[in-house]
């Protein structure tokens, strides 16, 4: 596949991409499928990526990070995915939780969490989705109330969350709840750090058809008592803090989808070059070649939008990044699903065998389309926020 993409990147970014690609190649899809089959975690790859400085490349240098941003972190996840071994928890731990704490956390929260998130010794999960509200922050029913008066009073957190990734391996979960505004009485979003073994913090694994090292959980919070300093940042800056995490989530989900699509496409191209049924390789036939070319184009276009979103976010343009991040996530999700689908069809029956490692991606690719927000909600966002069309809800 062409390397023309690198002309838009700095030499440092090109070097990072090449180094991470080499790491991913040493593990590959076989490593990932073995981990999934054994029901274990990607501890070895996570540890090596951390040791090389890749996991915390977006976090501040003063806390052990690389001092970069979403541009660098998205390269890491994309290249690992293109090698067949993406680390889903990168979307959650350094991208969402690390970013939110780095931007809005107290000095103590930064000292406690950022060095571990940067070197991979600590991980965090992120809980926003609820059974009835989905990811609609305005309908979240998980609530926090003070147990007493004054700024040092404990918090009591009650509610439910679903589809929370990796809670079993995370040291804590960043929970999106709501508190009552003292002036208006309205509920506003706030974020709380909930350590894994906190009393009243229960988890139940969700039985998924999706096969991945990272399991999905339902969380039950039953009057979970948290100290005052469990609240991240300013109680009155909830939406700003929330979207500081959601934009990186969308950028990294785009990287996840692009990487997966590239992996599937590379397998299909390799097969189409060598598989011969009549007198020539099947890749010489336009019915095979053109859909693969289209998939490549879609993935490249998705990357451009992802790079734009990362640049805007890293430059501090949260509003501009919001639009671009949503568009990047939408485009990458569609491109990923189409690339996987076309790859499987290119291989025919072989595309459904374990040997080629594509069949499991039929389900996995849907993650990029569905999570963390559906394509329909992104279309709502663009039609309302960008085009100024009226809402029906």
From TrEMBL:
GO molecular function: acyl-CoA dehydrogenase activity; flavin adenine dinucleotide binding
InterPro entries reported for this sequence: Acyl-CoA_dehydrogenase (IPR050741), Acyl-CoA_Oxase/DH_mid-dom (IPR006091), Acyl-CoA_Oxase/DH_mid-dom_sf (IPR046373), AcylCo_DH-like_C (IPR036250), AcylCo_DH/oxidase_C (IPR009075), AcylCoA_DH/ox_N (IPR013786), AcylCoA_DH/ox_N_sf (IPR037069), AcylCoA_DH/oxidase_NM_dom_sf (IPR009100)
GO cellular component: cytoplasm
Domain Acyl-CoA dehydrogenase/oxidase N-terminal residue range list: 10-120
Residue ranges constituting the Acyl-CoA dehydrogenase/oxidase C-terminal domain according to the UniProt record: 238-380
The protein, known as: Acyl-CoA dehydrogenase fadE12
Tree of life domain: Bacteria
Family of the protein in this entry: Belongs to the acyl-CoA dehydrogenase family.
Domain Acyl-CoA oxidase/dehydrogenase middle intervals: 125-223
High-level lineage: Bacteria, Bacillati, Actinomycetota, Actinomycetes, Kitasatosporales
Annotated keywords: FAD, Flavoprotein, Oxidoreductase
